[in-house]
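Checklist before submission:
- one chain only
- standard amino acids only
- sequence pasted in full

Submission:
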Amino acid sequence: MSKPEVTRLTMIRGGGIGILPIADLPAAAIAATGAALDPIYAAIATQREADQLHIEACDRLCASGMSDPEYAALEAATDVACAAYEEATRALFLTEPTTLAGAAALFRYLAECLDGDDTEILRAPMTDYTDEELEPMLAGEQLVRTFARVLDRLAAASA
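Returned file contents:
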């Protein structure tokens, strides 16, 4: 008998409010993308799934009313999905592609996000600051720093 697969999607749809680490997300989509060659593929797959789960949780919360007896559970599930989305987005921007194909895949994915529903992805905060005088580094800024290192490494390898 096979063990049932536990994902954030099954946790949210099933009403469970557990928090699973990003590493526990299903690997089926990741394995098919060639993640063994470049870690960016796993980061893209994880962020894509977290984004979808976040959208679904927000849609369910918005469709319910505050008088809905399930509202508190839906709100908690949305908080879990939001935290997972933020974690996956930070991981995406901190993961350095190790191949030119991986770098191109990341930019294609970001273009897809910008063309779709996730137009805020480049403005996602990379750090959580409680001091209001400090502004968090945004994902777009991190992307520039990451890609400077990636391009230097790829140029050195091809020289």
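Reviewer check: The chain has one domain: 8-158.
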